[in-house]
TrEMBL record, chain B:
Stored InterPro entries: Tscrpt_reg_PadR_N (IPR005149), WH-like_DNA-bd_sf (IPR036388), WH_DNA-bd_sf (IPR036390)
Matches recorded under Gene3D superfamilies: Winged helix-like DNA-binding domain superfamily/Winged helix DNA-binding domain
Domain Transcription regulator PadR N-terminal positions: 19-90
UniProt protein name: Transcriptional regulator PadR-like family protein
Domain of life: Bacteria
Amino acid sequence: MKPRNIEPPRLADRLLEWFVAPHRLESLQGDLHEEFAYQVQRIGEQRAKWRYWQDVLGFIRPSFAIKRDASVNQYLSPALANPAMIRNYFRTAWRNLAKNKFYSFINISGLTIGLAVGILILLWVQDELSFDRFHTQSSSIYRLENWAGTGSSRQIWTTTVAPIAGFAKRETPEVKDAVRLAGNYAYTLFKYKGKTINENKTFFTDPALFSVFDFKLIQGNPAKPFSDDHSIVLTETTAKRYFGNENPVGKVLAANDNTTFTVSGIVRDFPKNSSIKGDMFLPISLFFRNLYEGNKDGKNKDNDFSQFRYETYLLLQPNTSVASLATKLRTIHLRNKPDDTDLTYLLQALPDMHLYKADGTEGGIETVRMFSIIALLILAIACINYVNLSTARSLLRSKEVSMRKIVGAARSQLFVQFLVETTLLFSLAAALALGLLYALLPLYNQLSGKELALNFGDYQIWQIIGLTIIGTLAASSIYPAILLSSFEPLKALKGKVSARLSEASFRKVLVVVQFAVSVILIAGTFIINNQLQYIRSKELGYDKTHVFAFFMRDMGKHYDAVKADLLNQPGVAAVTRAGGNIVQLGGQTGDNEWDGKEQGETMMMHTVAIDKDFIPFFNMKLQHGANFTGAVADSLHFILNETAVKAARLENPIGKRFRLWKHNGTIIGVVKDFHFASMKQKIEPAIFYYEPRDLGAIYIKTTGKEAEHAIASAQKSWKQYNADFPFEFSFLDDVFTNLYKTEQQTGLLFTIFSSIAILISCLGLFGLAAYTAQVRTREIGVRKVLGASVTSVIQLLAKDFIQLVLIAIVIAVPLAWWAMSVWLEDFAYRIDIEWWMFAIAGLLALAIALLTVSFQSIKAALMNPVRSLRSE
Amino acid sequence: MKRTYLGEFEEIVLLTVAVLEGQAYGVALTHEIIEQTGRSVRLNQIHAALQRLEDKGMVKSEMGEPTAERGGRRKRLFTVTAYGRRTLQEIQEVRVSLWSRLVNPFKPVTSL
């Protein structure tokens, strides 16, 4: 049997045929095929094919591509690299830009805006992604968290118990080291030589904070940062605040209760992209001493498994199984506190802390992804503009190209010529974009709440800027260059070139893509802003207008006098107090019991101590039962919210037995559900209890107009009792607004970015419309002479574009619908997506397109036909 | 000496062209050189060397006969020009004269 005829790889052959100079091709290809046949015999088909590829790639070198033998024609040197030729490329490119000022302007401005905004967004994205990755050991550091509770009240805590860190280090070999951080509420005022500063970013911590993380001590002993329990480590900036330029180490700070601390170390300021930040650090051993010393119930730092207040970070061995470590930690916990059966441990990687929620689901990463996509879309729109305009206008240049070809230009030379033209235009745009970037950065930082800086020493910034510009350049220059250099001279000179269908339809596809993106962005903007409007205006279940609040400190001891005094002041409408902030309730407990509670069931509920006039003060509605009266018996009375009643499955709750902590009492009322957290969360169970000792926060309702007076009176009263402390208060409206700060920022940025995307698309459309009108000048002239009305001419010109925009809308609506449903899922309370939102977005896009196109169309339609017909 | 510089690899290729006497083309040269020198030589290197040699005027080429395994394509057959032959000879003479002036010729490795 004759052996099967094995062919060498077709693609490799094509590459060779395309690349190698024709006069060499025959013998080279012959040699290659002969060698291939020989290799098939020797090493088999597969490896021979592989070798063939290698051989062909070996021929991809300039010396094999040069057209004629140097010995035959010694006057022709490689034209691509000839300096005269290069100069010529730049000269023609510049002339072309200068000649078509209108199109150059549209192209450059579109690209400049696109590049500047694209880079801005990508800088933001890069900053977000860089969070917590600067530690050398960041990939082996994990935060220890707990799941607690059962059923619908199951929740995650990012702080855990103190002893688990020690147990983990001793009993699990995977854990190399552990760092705990506990918030400091004991020492708030620090004094040095008559300077008193209120510090609220102070933490108690393990010394390992400075060795596990890359928080380097500039001064002090990294092995022993705290020399005793009364040592303190400050950041550089904090130290400057107290000591100016003096050497801070060894200086003594006095805290509010006259405890003194000696500065034992200075740590470099925390990077902006660190999730862990603080100003002052105290040894955690002091915290334990304050907490447990003289404690009679036998609890200490090594056995107290009930205080979940320590942020704990574990440094693990490489390749540790996180899940099995979590199980081991749970076993340790249950061994020490067997009744915590509902508790499980989990670990979150340090670099994930910023962009993912504590339970590992997506958090900020969604915004990062959304913004990256927007950046790419804006860049794509800018590229499309360029491609469309230059290919459309290429038809006008077909004659130039043909002349060049006839005179002897090779395709590769033309290709390079157009590439140089694009590069020149791009360099201009890139330079302008960098300038724009520089100018916009402060404004952008303000809008996005970032502190980005164009630090040109940072290679990552260059990486982003460079990649963006090169990527955009490549995406938008290659196609037009190929197209332009491909014209066949004879056809082009005869004027037949414009009929090529494929290019025009490619352009149409690009316009559709551009407008589909615009419609999606418009619809997105619309829905995001509607949702933000919705959460801000949704009925909260209480009235927070004109109310400001603050923690009373020592004023609390004289509350009744203070209240009586304040009520007599102008501007004060009402006064009440409570244990926490109603806009965002903090503390929760699962230490409760009621009739019908099942074995092993836990209901986590938010607890707030309130005064008897709290409910009327905030206009809350009691669904059933009665309010507290202020009687002694009220300490055993509870008011639940509707959600708590539902979660506990209580029917007729009034008068039922309920235990909170050690208080065995009864339910006397049910308050209508109210929002005490962000709208992203469902309303959770909450309980009001009456305990005057816990009522640390005062709420003052002003009449609105005379708010200034009310604040001044409150401040006077504050000074009377808390002379040392600065008076800090906040209006509930502001606290509420702050809850949605990130959403507001996202919404605002989204709006701005989509407007820019639309603006760039319009620039492109404007250019295309102008071009169409220009090409059809004579046609319009003839039509008008024959009696066409202005309206019909406008219709004629606008029709094509409107069709494209309509197609874009049809494509965009489902995509936008899908994307926005995903975004809305994040909110527990959200608007429904309605069809009219898309209708408005579509109409808006259509209107913008129409406006853009009609300007040119009307101009063309109004032109005097005599002129346009005489023009040639 | 005022002759064109010839690289070591070019010299081998040129010599092999001479050895093959009229039957020298890409594939044959490659195989012959692999066999004789044991180097792993690829087609493109041979062709590049031949191109350089042709530029220098040491070989000339003409198209030969097509064969089936080449897909009906003709070979380019190379022959050494007079200039090439003279260059080879000069190289040889330089080497011989240098070797003859060697006072203590290297002993074979086996005698160590």
